[in-house]
Backbone:
């Protein structure tokens, strides 16, 4: 029973942290940028976590404007994503 309660407590903490991350994102992103972040969260949870951590670091460093627009957020995403290599197919 004690193990069960410990798991419940851990799950509660994880949910609380997730809720705090979403609330933080809503504060620092415009509505369009926030919607984009939620789409990223659905498609790639790892990238979502990486972006939220980056936003938090930028805010703590004082390098984040009041609200990040969608265009600015897209530029931030481009910096985080690895550069795709172009594949070239030649037919003979």
Residues:
């Amino acid at each position: 029973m004690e193990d069960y309660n410990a798991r419940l407590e851990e799950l509660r903490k994880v949910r609380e942290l997730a809720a705090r991350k979403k609330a933080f994102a809503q504060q620092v992103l415009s509505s369009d940028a926030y919607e984009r972040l939620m789409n990223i969260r659905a498609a790639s949870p790892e990238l979502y976590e990486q972006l939220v951590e980056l936003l938090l670091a930028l805010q703590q460093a004082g390098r984040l404007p009041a609200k990040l627009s969608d265009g600015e957020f897209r530029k931030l995403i481009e910096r985080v994503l690895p550069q795709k290599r172009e594949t070239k197919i030649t037919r003979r």
User: Anything to note?
Assistant: The radius of gyration is 18 Å.
